[in-house]
Amino acid sequence: MDKKIITVQNLVKHYGNFEAVKGISFDVYEGEIFGLLGPNGAGKSTTLEIIETLRDKTSGKIMVDGFDLDTQPNEIKKIIGVQLQTSGFYPGLNLLELIDLFSGLYNQKVDPYALLDLVNLRDKAKSKVKQLSGGQKQRFSIATTLINKPRIVFLDEPTTGLDPQARRNLWELVRNIRKQGTTVIITTHYMDEAEYLCDRVAIVDSGRIVAMASPDQLIDELVATGFERPKEMKKANLEDVFIHLTGNTLRETQIPES
Ligand SMILES: Nc1ncnc2c1ncn2[C@@H]1O[C@H](COP(=O)(O)OP(=O)(O)OP(=O)(O)O)[C@@H](O)[C@H]1O
């Protein structure tokens, strides 16, 4: 895991007079799950959208798999998968028809059922997006990022609003995607998620990277400063109670068409 697939050097983004991204640099290695963490407004989505070629940068240099963002954005578009908001999907089409539409747009042949199997949605093939639960919608939107067989997938807060079962199910999906050799960049506000999924994380605050390493390394560094949690942790937390009582099975009753 030592080939750099993304390099970001001195990225700056101004919105008018406001400097949202203040000269950040990082590398992402091929095959890793890389997390961008940070409070609201830190500049994570701005950074992702610039790399995804969806937003202009003010300055800085970005290379994606050997392609320069300034001169070869179309080459970059071909090798990345970007998660779209499910609200943007054509409401009249079912999942099979949407996959068909996207594969036509990308000029790719895909086996729609194999794709739906990957995200555990085969039985919803004929459903429309509005008939899916929140977790199913997220899984479907991740499936659509895979249609062009991307080398890198970008996931912006993929588990926000999901229940604990659906979050854990999505974590396994992200791990599966990586297992197939795809590099994953993810933003999240959930530290347990970052700890579970990410090989490395960059913590962004007010447009700057304030730390970057593996979650383990960052925790060890903090502990080495003498930091201790203020109170003894119990052996379980409320999420453990919740999962213990309600199990790991997905709760996904189909929402009837209105
Ligand atoms: N189009 C825009 N015009 C002006 N300011 C913007 C625009 N987009 C984002 N910003 C500002 O830039 C800063 C960074 O926003 P960004 O969405 O990148 O943060 P984020 O880290 O993704 O936050 P969140 O966790 O809330 O999604 C914020 O202060 C935001 O208000």
Automatic annotation (TrEMBL):
Compartments where found: Cell membrane
Name of the featured protein: ABC-2 type transport system ATP-binding protein
Keywords for the protein's UniProt record, in alphabetical order: ATP-binding, Cell membrane, Membrane, Nodulation, Nucleotide-binding, Translocase, Transport
GO molecular function: ATP binding; ATP hydrolysis activity
Domain of life per record: Bacteria
SUPFAM superfamilies in alphabetical order: P-loop containing nucleoside triphosphate hydrolases
Domain ABC transporter: 6-231
Record family assignment: Belongs to the ABC transporter superfamily.
